[in-house]
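User: Hello! My lab partner asked me to get a predicted holo structure for this protein. The small molecule is zinc ion, SMILES included with the sequence. Please write out the C-alpha cells.
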Amino acid sequence: MRLLVEDAGKPWFAGWLSRICDLSGDDRGTRWVGGRRVRWYLGHAGVTVLHPDAAGARIYYHVRLTETRLPSGGFRWWWACPGCGRRVDVLYLPLGRDRLGCRRCCGLVYRSQYAGRRGGRRRHRPRVEGDNMLGWWMWLKR
Ligand SMILES: [Zn+2]
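Assistant: Hello! Below are the C-alpha cells for the protein in complex with zinc ion.
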C-alpha cells in the first residue's frame, strides 16, 4: 500500500532549518516530524538527530546537510537523505518507519500523482473523439 505525502505527518524542511539557524543562531532544538518528537543538534556538516524508532526505542544518528550559497550572501541547506543520500529539501518520518527518509525512501506519493494515474484513463478520450469523428465522417458519406 502506498502512503500519501499528505498522510505522512509533519515533514522536516532543510530550508526551514537553515533559516532558523541563520536567524537565531540556534544549534539545537526539538521538532515534531510525522508525529514523533525529534531532537536535533547541529554538528559537523549536518545534524545529529535523536528520536524514537518505530518500536519506541530511542535511536540517534547523523544526517548530513549540504549548503548552497545564496546570491543574497546567505546560505541554504539541503538534506542528504539518510536512506539513499539524495539531496532533498524534505525528510519524513511516517508511522512504522525507524528513520527519517526522503519521499522516495518512505514510498510516499502525492495525491496529485494518484489523480494523474487516474487521469491515465482520460488518455482514451481522444480515441473516443476519433471514433466520433469517424462516425461523423461515415454520416457525411451517407
Ligand atoms: Zn532517500
